[in-house]
Specification:
heterodimer, A: mainly alpha, MetI-like fold, elongated, B: mainly alpha, 2 domains
């Protein structure tokens, strides 16, 4: 298609930027290409590499948690003397000690890893789909579609996140499903705006106009020309959403609105806090705290590196 | 400019209205009947009806919505099931308590964060200051507010024993209500937590802005005048403030989340903690009102951020 369109150059004979853009736009790349490029760049950044390794280790632990956990996380364990193993310091039997209820901290920690990933990944996927769709529609079609979607995000952005999450989960019932639902309701809005801004700059580019002039349909342009440019940004937002979702679940659980059937890191902290063990039982408090910090920070570090690599404005200078 | 302000005001009013409506329907979705929790089972039917009527829980949904709106408009937020007092009377004294943490905490976080952001942004690209700054900021940003609060509580209250970490301390009377040593001592740790919680995002945004401004020609001009390098950085910093202020807009909503949690960790009697308590007690009027107050605080803060933004950046069109 591109050969049919001729662009007058500025007089030096070489291709102009516009022509290059048309070429770039018509060059077919696989949908995975941005990820492969991005990953290659990430691995070269030492911080991002460390972050990726930490995330991978957590993921592995989550996948194998049922296997690795030495005890049932809810079981009230007895000491050899037959009493409740209450608030025991770390030992050979209990590597991370026990809680005030005689539960094994390590087992709870391992199960909590799984809960974190379940919440994080499922919420991020839904958030990614919704924000990409809304952002595409809003940015590409503009006018009243854009108006409606953007006013909705404006209003949604002004609503305090955690308070509404507290109220919603309290009303709908404390379960992982409802927590994921609330996270999705909270984070589609920022994602949609970010995707929209990319679409806005992308659709003004000459190659899109050329494709349009050559008779490509809206759907085709969105799919072939705009979506590949949106994917790195949408993916960044999804990565961040994993962290936000884990954080939101942890916060709600810490307040006491966690799923009673899924022991998460936030819930461990909630129990330690309500039992008044925060000041004494460091072996109960530190492990879930540090896991949260390391997992969320790693995701942020990777996301940040990804942003630096995909945003040339930051890369060049 | 005036049209812009009016438009922003109207948007703020719209948001408050949406929040109110959302609240109404959310709270009506609650599966549990609030009377079962509050009214002893042995109560005769007539007395139960009276109570329902008093709390506006009878009639059709439309009727309830209408009376809810008119009540709100007249400043009647209902009566707390738990305290048996008007919700407003319970929560009004707590507004100041929350602001006492929110305002100093966010100001400190923004000031220190932006300052450090300039330092990191002005440092050599790829040098130790830049790498350490970015790494630390990104790391701290990943620390959940309650984990941060627990750490600070452990270190400064339990191990070092420097400051108290529970409650609000002893308040004075009347004018000197908030001017007691006990209150100030209790204030330090929550404010510190909020400041640290709020700081990294400011730092990172400021740094990005400074980095993007570094190569600009106007800085060469400033440099050519022969001023000190710190003065040049100051020029870049001023022009980098805009993205930080734009970011404040959505960030305020997030920061309120931090404040709620911090109040819980430090048992600080503020709106956020009361919201959590009320939700656990199924005390609708208090939960509703607390949520409403938090939303209004955010709307007002957003409005202020918008106006400051328009004032600072002449490029903003007031369309």
């Amino acid at each position: 298609m591109a050969e049919m369109v001729e662009f007058p150059g500025p007089g030096r004979g070489g291709p102009t930027r516009d022509v290059l853009e048309v070429w770039a736009g018509t060059r077919r790349r696989s949908g995975l290409a941005p990820f492969v490029d991005g990953l290659r760049l990430l691995v070269r950044d030492p911080f991002a590499l460390v972050g990726l390794v930490i995330i991978a280790v957590f993921f592995l632990v989550a996948a194998l948690s049922g296997f690795l956990a030495p005890y049932d996380p809810y079981e009230a364990l007895p000491t050899p003397e037959g009493e409740l193993a209450r608030l025991e310091t770390p030992s050979g039997d209990h590597w991370l000690g026990t809680t005030a209820f005689g539960n094994d901290v390590l087992s709870q920690l391992l199960v909590g890893t799984r809960v974190a990933f379940i919440v994080g990944i499922s919420a991020a996927i839904v958030v990614g789909i919704i924000s990409t769709l809304l952002g595409l529609l809003s940015g590409y079609y503009g006018r009243y579609v854009d108006d409606v979607i953007m006013r909705a995000t404006d209003v949604a952005l002004s609503i305090p996140t955690l308070p509404i999450a507290i109220v919603a989960v309290a009303i709908l019932g404390a379960s992982l499903r409802n927590i994921i639902l609330v996270v999705v309701l909270l984070f589609w809005r920022n994602g949609a705006r970010i995707v929209r801004s990319v679409v806005l700059t992308e659709k003004e580019k000459v190659y899109v106009q050329a494709a349009r002039a050559a008779g490509a349909s809206h759907l085709y342009i969105m799919r072939v020309h705009i979506l590949p440019n949106v994917i790195p940004v949408a993916f960044l937002w999804m990565t961040m959403s994993v962290a936000f979702a884990i954080l939101a679940e942890a916060s709600l659980s810490f307040i006491g609105l966690g799923d009673p059937n899924a022991m998460s890191w936030g819930q461990m902290l909630n129990l330690a806090f309500t039992e008044g063990s925060i000041r004494t039982a460091w072996w109960w408090v530190l492990p879930p705290s540090l896991c949260l910090v390391f997992l969320i920070s790693s995701i942020y570090v990777v996301g940040r590196a990804w942003e630096e690599k995909t945003n040339p404005r930051l890369r060049r200078r | 400019m005036r049209a812009y302000i009016v438009r922003r005001l109207m948007q703020a009013v719209l948001v408050v209205f949406v929040v109110i409506t959302l609240m109404f329907f959310l709270f009506r979705l609650m599966p549990a009947d609030p009377t079962t929790m509050l009214v002893e089972s042995g109560l005769p039917e007539q007395a139960r009806q009276d109570l329902l009527e008093r709390w506006g829980l009878t009639g059709s949904l439309a009727d309830q919505y209408w009376s809810y709106l008119t009540n709100l408009a007249t400043g009647d937020f209902g009566t707390s099931f738990f305290y048996q007092e008007p919700a407003w009377n319970v929560l009004a004294p707590l507004i100041l308590n929350t602001l006492w943490i929110a305002v100093p905490g966010m100001l400190l976080g923004a000031l220190i964060g932006c300052g450090l952001g300039v330092v990191v942004g002005w440092a050599r690209r790829g040098g130790p200051v830049e790498r350490a700054g970015i790494f630390l900021a990104t790391f701290v940003r990943g620390v959940p507010s309650f984990v941060l609060g627990i750490f600070i509580l452990m270190v400064f209250s339990t191990w070092l024993g420097w400051f108290p970490g529970f409650g609000i301390g002893e308040l004075g009377d009347g004018f000197t209500r908030y001017f007691t040593w006990s209150f100030l001592a209790h204030l330090i740790l929550p404010v510190m937590t909020l400041a640290i919680f709020f700081l990294p995002e400011n730092l990172l945004l400021m740094r990005t802005g400074v980095v993007e401004n570094r190569g600009e020609d106007y800085l060469e001009l400033v440099r050519a005048k022969g001023v000190k390098e710190s003065r040049v950085a100051w020029h870049a910093a001023r022009n980098s403030l805009l993205p930080v202020i734009t970011w404040l807009f959505p960030a305020l909503a997030e920061t309120v989340a931090g404040i709620v949690i911090i109040e819980v960790v430090f048992s600080w009697p503020g709106i956020g903690r009361e919201l959590v308590l009320a939700v656990n007690r199924q005390d609708y009027p208090i939960a509703q009102t607390a949520f409403f107050l938090l939303a209004v605080m955010i709307v007002l803060a957003n409005l202020a951020a918008d106006l400051v933004y328009a004032k600072l950046d002449p490029r903003v069109s007031y369309e």
